Amino acid sequence: MDILVSWLEGHLDELVVDLLATLREADDAFRECDPQALAGGLHTSLWHFTLYAHGRDYRHVEQCRQALVQVWPAGRFLLSVPIRVFFGVEDLVAIRARDAYRDADDLIDDLRALRSATRQVLCHFADAAQQRYEAPMAAGAISNTAALHETRLGAAVGAPVSLVDAHPVLATQAVQPVASSSGLGARVGAVRFVGRRSELDTMWVRVEALAEGTQSRHQVVGLKGAAGAGKTALVDRVLNRFERRRSAPHVLRAHAPRLFNVPRWPLIQWTRQALEVPIGAADVPARVAEALAQLAPWTPPGAGAEALRDGSDYLARLLGTESLSAPRVARRVGAGTRQTLLALLEVPARRAMEQSGGPLFLVIEDADELDSPSWVLLQQVLQQLPVTAPVMVLLTYDSRFVIPPPMSRLPGFVEVVL
After folding, report:
1. Per residue, what are the HEC states of the chain?
2. For 30-52, what is each residue's pLDDT tens digit?
3. Which are the contacts of 155, defined by CB distance < 8 A and separation ≥ 6?
4. pLDDT digits 0-9 by tens, 231-270
5. What is the model's pTM?
């Protein structure tokens, strides 16, 4: 979505001007506001909307809402306002951003991602208007939605509740060896593993080949089966066996999102884990720079080191920072981000081989929900990473899903049907 986000950032002023004229003509609610205040509120609101659409940092959703609500006197804000605003933005973007794309399919993918952001923002406006997050909860009750909102209705934006503390599912943890006392051993040991011996052996042979250096290709295992067939348990079993027979595995683990479409979301999750930058972290550029410095012992000299040094801006932007330190052409942003991601994944793979004596495990669960850009980038990773930095990719997906042909044709791919 880099092209679309860059286009939005570069054309925000003219979008606001055109949107303002249309809104004031269409609805009395917009004519009762001061035009300058409305223009400022629209600009700030759409800026935070753009940041949310790019990085899915939920703080920007509430900031987007407050920037728009404060334009109207107390009690005068209508729910039709954000509906007109954000659907109007979608219409303008769909018409005007076409020239930024060479491939119509890429534009369609990005517009789908933008629509998912629009849907979430409108839901937040509606929930806040109904005071959904102000109602007291019974003792011991846990809200499965309120924790996603970093600020409660009426709380100051400047003092948000920590998203990571409020919602542990979103607390992406750093890559680190799995402790046998509380890690995979405990999790897998709690449930007796029955059957699947041949499938486990198929996967283990490939792991050992990478660890011993006898395999000249990165390995990809697709675990195909219906819900409840034991795909995740089999992944955990492989990692547990590696821990028992060799050392604590180095793992980057991601879930493809089911409820929203974010291009390259699993690779963004891998990046957060590799750099130890959780969602909602403050001062992302500084944390990225610090993480890259800590990874320096495993960073290969030459082009890889240069790509990481020159691409720290791209990584920070990918993880939710406000913008690049200098203006970039949209297509260069996309190409630069891809190249930096490729260079970054090589570093934890080298560290994994040195510290654990085996490959870096890259896990994507529910891979049948992956978008096209993620499949393309994953294929590029497997084709361009040197074999001296081996990776073992483990994918789980539904029994009805068919792996994209470019991925299934890779020399190291095998599908295991459960």
Report:
1. CHHHHHHHHHCHHHHHHHHHHHHHHHCHHHHCCCHHHHHHHHHHHHHHHHHHHHHCCCHHHHHHHHHHHCCCCCCCCCCHHHHHHHHHHHHHHHHHHHHHCCCHHHHHHHHHHHHHHHHHHHHHHHHHHCCCCCCCCCCCCCCCCHHHCCCCCCCCCCCCCCHHHHCHHHCCCCCCCCCCCCCHHHHHHCCCCCCCHHHHHHHHHHHHHHHHCCCCCCEEEEEECCCCCCHHHHHHHHHHHHHHHCCCCEEEEEECCCCCCCCCHHHHHHHHHHHCCCCCCCCHHHHHHHHHHHCHHHCCCCHHHHHHHHHHHHHHHHCCCCCCCCCCCHHHHHHHHHHHHHHHHHHHHHHHHHHHCCCEEEEEECHHHCCHHHHHHHHHHHHHCCCCCCEEEEEEECCCCCCCHHHHCCCCEEEEEC
2. 888 888 888 889 989 998 888 88
3. 161
4. 999 999 999 999 998 899 999 999 887 655 667 788 888 9
5. 0.58
In single-letter form, the type of residue at position 35 comes to P
Tokens 């959703």 found at:
61
Pair of tokens at residue 398? 């539904």
